[in-house]
What we know:
The complex is a heterodimer.
Chain A: E1 2-11, H1 15-26, E2 31-35, E3 51-52, H2 66-76, H3 83-103, E4 113-119, E5 122-128, E6 149-150, H4 156-171, E7 174-177, E8 179-186, E9 191-198, E10 204-214, H5 235-241, E11 248-249, E12 254-261, H6 271-274, E13 278-280, H7 288-291, H8 301-316, E14 326-329, H9 334-340, H10 343-353, E15 362-371, E16 374-376, E17 389-391, E18 396-397, H11 409-430, H12 438-456, H13 465-479, E19 483-484, H14 486-503, H15 517-541, E20 550-551, E21 557-558, H16 559-562, E22 564-569, E23 578-583, E24 602-603, H17 607-613
Parallel strand pairs in A: 1-2, 1-10, 2-7, 10-17, 16-18, 19-20, 21-24
Antiparallel strand pairs in A: 3-6, 4-5, 8-9, 9-10, 11-16, 11-22, 12-15, 13-14, 14-15, 22-23
Chain B: E1 4-11, E2 22-29, H1 36-46, E3 66-69, E4 72-75, E5 87-91, E6 98-100, E7 103-104, H2 106-117, H3 138-148, H4 155-158, H5 161-165, H6 171-183, H7 191-198, H8 212-216, H9 223-249
Parallel strand pairs in B: 1-5
Antiparallel strand pairs in B: 1-2, 3-4, 3-5, 6-7
Amino acid sequence: MYTHNTDLLVIGAGLSGERIAVEAAQAGFSVICLSIVPARRSHSSAAQGGMQAALGNCALGENDHPDVHFADTVKGSDWGCDQEVARMFANTAPIEMRRLAHWGVPWNRVVAGTSFYFKGGEKFEKTEAKEKAGLITARSFGGTAKWRTCYTSDGTGHAVMCTMDNKCAELGIAVLDRKEAIALIHDGQKCMGAVVRCLRTGRLETYLATATAICSGGFGRLYAATTNAIICDGGAAAMALDTGLVPIGNPEAIQFHPTGIVPTEILVTEGCRGDGGTLLDVHEERFMHIYEPQKAELASRDVVARRMLEHIRAGHGVPSAYGEHLWLDIRHLGDEHISTKLREVDEICQNFLGVDPRTQLIPVRPTQHYTMAGIRTNKTGAAYGLKGLFSAGEAACWDMHGFNRLGGNSLAETVVAGGIIGRYVVDYLKNTDLCFSSALVKAELARQQERIDDLMASRLGKENVYAVRKDMQEALTEGCFVFRNAQGLQRCVHILKEVLDRAGKIGLVSNGLGANHELGAALKIQGQVRLALCVATAALARTESRGSHNREDYPERNDAQWLKRTLAYWPQDNLAPKLEYEEATPYFEIPPGDRGYGGGSIIPADAEKIAAKTMQNQE
Amino acid sequence: MARTLTFEIFRYNPAIPEQKPQMQCFTLAETANMTLFIALNRLREEQDPSLVFDFCCRAGICGSCGMVVNGRPRLACQTKTADLPERIILLPLPVFKLVGDLSVDTGVWFRDMYQKTRSWIHTKKAFDSDQEEERMDNAVAEQIYELERCVECGCCIAACGTARMRDDFLGAASLNRIARFALDPRDERTDQDYFEIIGNDYGIFGCMGLLACEDVCPKHLPLQNQLGFLRRKMGITALKQLFRKSSCAS
């Protein structure tokens, strides 16, 4: 038995995981980070745009304040977020950006003087103040009142990931790659670590820890079309769900990105539109301003995604071999801007499409992008249901995003939440002693080995894992995408239940030895289908439209009934998830109001109830 | 005209040592906009699920999928089959330890590199959350980012003549890492500190100047310039050292 002991076990070595690890290591605790891929290849590194923090250094961010950032975040969430958590986030973000600067992130800085920028295809002038020169600057991003998104060229996630991983190296933290957690070890009360499959040898190992943090990112790969990396497959979230004790918060809250390229679904950053890129239809004419006269292309991303599909449905899409799409136009931004500020976008177009964005249009359409959904935690990052289990970043439902997160808030959340939750993890480690039961560990290890043996010997059936996975992805994409309705969702749930049955009857085609991919896929498919069923079932139950959850049959945001968060549990041996609900927020700093874009009417909540929960200004 | 592609792929599973390494042939009908990411996944899902290879972001950002494609190290995800002949030969990157088939262990190699180069900002200053950040010229920030763009795919190491001959050679990715910190005003290390890491045969003086590293870098990092810059800098440091020693001796 390969057993490792540590104070803190972090599952997923992306930005939030490593940020927690740093906090614990600096407090003197031993930490092991496990990752499917080398840490710097984590999906954090793919975020091009930036991190929102109200530093207010640049001209168009002048007079920005955490209050404004908080308000943008709550409005963006369509009042689905936990306002206490959103407040913690907005207040801490500027400090965290400065800390990252100290650790080595090469943030772009304010350059004094006059320069030009584009908005909605028009050219404007701005003047940066001399006294701000050299401070961290910011760019514009969809859905915000101020220019607030800190960035390093167009590789913010990559640059911050490098710095964070350097910090881990400096602190001597064990960051182990090609290690995939496949089951949590717990006694029904406390989490004690995980059973892990080594992706070099195929061997099982156990990691015992006083605290375990799941920071494994989102689960876009449940969908057929997603901007997410291959590794964002929901394996770790499903592992938490599999305990029967830990719920997924708001599984129906899934965000779609307006601009995935066609056909490979690779994301081109919202920075394109922030910098003045426009969307065109089959006639090569702009259309966003018809639907959203105020913000046009800069409206919140679910609004843009919805309007794009609406425009395609109205017969204005561009036909192609991969289905209809629209065009993103950045030609007018010019060679210098595209070569520097949007270099990754340029590379994606050249390398994956053979398109030169200086002279040609980029084919785009909406695609799955982000899961606000995740392992439900309280404000300290502690997961519901199991002591000693924490979660942060996209993997978690902490829940600052509610039903829609703003561009630049997710990447910021990784480090801001990682820092805050890291400090709570340290408190927990200081105050907790844990007895490990070797019998419990052996039993879990044996259970996992048996699953592997069953799959390798095809004892439970001969279903092909790739075929089953494809059917799950297609069912979810067909029935539970940007637009949803009862009929489509019922069908989706029905199909997924059949798929779940087949997922229990997988047999390997290959021998499963060593660094075998098919076995890895087979070990997680049941959990993935359960997760997909949580998404579809919760979407069917929520009879309103809020943020990125758009019900065609219930277009109103229903604050009277739905100012609450879904908690999806999967009790052992159940064939369907069990849904519970809780209040969306412990109190309102900003009572529910119109988010100011996107249309749709609101069924108001009881005014007295809201007033009773609303904080009074301290004056 | 749709082509039929022939893939010749290196096969070896270290978990089955009795099976000798071999090349295996697969054929696949080419489709529009096909990349090696699409092709290899189709081969695994439709023909042979035991095939081992690495992809992660599939967007040329993460550096997972370095392999030798028709003789040249490159990222498979951003290799379009339309740019290749009908016969495609795929081999794992040399130098790195083989995980299986086309997958190599770049993770352990690069973590070891972080320790060798001490790949972090060395500063005596403590972070003060109440203070404004230290100012930096935007041009300097952009220069640092330019070198920070390395995705650690290992292509430059696999293509390096010296790295192929000696296991302890740091290689272009590591030397570029030193150049990144040498450029950063926040790092308090001196030329002498850097000299102790790279002023030797497994560092900058081991480079033979063949510069395949720059030719194959998928991020087009200016490796040639960085190697030249470090060689001059370290050469001068060595001369100063020599001069100081001889003046001490006299």
